[in-house]
Design brief:
18 helices, globular, 15 strands, Diaminopimelate Epimerase, Chain A, domain 1, binds manganese (II) ion, inorganic pyrophosphatase (n-terminal core), six-stranded mixed β-sheet
């Protein structure tokens, strides 16, 4: 990431902001996952502050046939966190009256109404999220530095901190958020639920990394903590990790490291225990105070057909929508657990170059990718091959979700390219794209076998 590239990207962001500000009625179309919701909310808030009349719509995926639905929303469109695969179709539909702000791998060359970090030498799978790019544009729209917290939530939601901390353009935004006392970054245990889970569950539900004998067992986790003198309850209330004193937190981290190394867990896995955590200082205690938990809450809304609830939370609602979001979160966690259980019980099929699972209608198409990704951290599959999981969509199409590890990407794997090329080869309105490490496609049921065979070859070509 060179300074020159960052400068060029910033120039483009400024041009896009000017183009958008020339309009009065604007429709913001965003992706429905955590990063998409955060990106959309940043853009909507910035435009409302600039006195614009804004409509917004969160959708699962941009497909050629959804473009017609979007047309009804207005005359000028801002697409955030997707659009890179559809520049040609969007140009045909809306001519000059749209901009795309995206970090997915671009299918087309750079253009004046297009902001994609890849065109500026910045890796959109780990250095820049959709929300980071939306934030950079928002800063040229007006004084919107307070929205940096949403940019961090989106980055974490897209797992761009998988190296243990945010890097690249995301880190630049983080530095601003820290300087403005909006976010606090600290090295800490990075298990999920430090504000919202009792410590026993904090350990028992950890999947990244797996803690042998503690993950999956509340009983063992409780014993582990009691044996080491930790207090679990105070005044009848279960303590969360954030209730511990600084010294107790350090002790817990040390005890976990000693425990795992004594069981022979490899160093690199133990290292995943510790990483940067991001606290949103303007949020009250609870799930919105931690960037990772905030992102999960948004995913719970977006991926369970309640985009507008997540969006309302992003825009500041802490009453009705927030309460609804909390119940969606509980439901979402249950669905993920059931999905993982289903895949583990039935077992994934092993193809030559990938693991394969067809969930049919038993897992929601919007959750299949998340669950497939979780199989790695739950050790249900080895890290040596990507996983390709299928689920049936409501419209009869088959949703394909592929996930891989960073190591496979380093070896040359590019799932977005493999899926896109496989779709092009089978035709039949198949469409695909995404990131090198996580990608998706939509195909017809009768094309499944042909698609899998072609994909097998494409992945083989990339890895050998
Ligand atoms: Mn994204």
């Amino acid at each position: 990431m060179s300074l020159q590239n960052i400068k060029a990207l910033n120039e483009r962001a400024k041009k896009l902001a000017e183009r958008i500000l020339a309009e009065q009625d604007i429709a913001v179309i965003h992706h429905y996952d955590a990063d998409g919701l955060a990106s959309g909310a940043i853009m909507v808030k910035a435009l409302q502050r600039a006195g614009k009349s804004v409509k917004f719509l969160g959708i699962k995926q941009l497909y050629t046939d959804t473009i017609e639905e979007i047309r009804a929303l207005g005359d000028f469109f801002v697409f955030v966190d997707f659009g890179s695969s559809h520049i040609k179709e969007l140009s045909e539909a809306f001519s000059d009256n749209f901009v795309v702000i995206d970090h997915h791998q671009p299918k087309y060359n750079d253009a004046y109404n297009f902001l994609n970090c890849w065109h500026f030498g910045i890796d959109g799978s780990k250095e820049a999220s959709g929300s980071t790019l939306a934030y950079i544009v928002a800063k040229h729209i007006g004084d919107n530095t307070d929205l940096s917290s949403l940019a961090i939530v989106g980055s974490v939601g897209d797992i761009q901190d998988s190296s243990g901390k945010l890097i690249g353009l995301n880190r630049n935004v983080l530095k601003e958020a820290i300087a403005n006392r909006i976010v606090l970054a600290k090295r800490d245990l990075r298990l999920y639920g430090r504000f919202t889970r009792p410590i026993v569950q904090f350990l028992a539900y950890s999947t990244d990394p797996i803690i042998p004998f503690l993950t999956g067992s509340e009983e063992n986790s409780m014993r582990f903590l009691l044996d080491r003198g930790f207090e679990l309850k105070r005044d009848e209330r279960w303590l969360s990790y954030e209730d511990l004193t600084y010294g107790e937190k350090q002790k817990l981290a040390t005890e976990l490291i000693i425990y795992m190394s004594s069981l022979g867990v490899p160093e690199w896995k133990i290292a995943r225990l510790i990483g940067e955590t991001y606290t949103l200082l303007k949020e009250p205690r609870g799930p919105l105070r931690d960037a990772k938990e905030y992102a999960t809450l948004l995913n719970a809304c977006g991926r369970n057909d309640a985009c507008e609830i997540g969006f309302a939370v992003c825009l500041g609602n802490r009453d009705e929508a927030y309460a609804k979001a909390l119940s969606l979160l509980a439901e979402h966690r249950k669905k993920l657990r059931e999905g993982i259980q289903l895949m583990i019980e039935e077992g994934v099929e092993e193809r030559k170059n990938f693991y394969y699972f067809n969930a049919g209608s038993r897992i929601k198409d919007s959750l299949i990718g998340v669950i497939a990704g979780m199989l790695y951290s739950s050790n249900a599959i080895s890290q040596e091959k990507p996983i390709v999981a299928l689920a049936k969509q409501d419209d009869g199409f088959i949703k394909v979700s592929a996930r891989a590890t960073q190591e496979l990407v380093t070896k040359g794997l590019n799932l977005a390219k493999a899926l896109r090329e496989s779709c092009a080869k089978i035709g039949n309105s198949a469409e695909g794209g995404g990131h090198n490490i996580a990608a998706g496609a939509r195909i017809k049921e009768k094309s499944i076998e042909e698609f899998l065979n072609i994909l097998d070859k494409k992945i083989e070509e990339q890895l050998h």
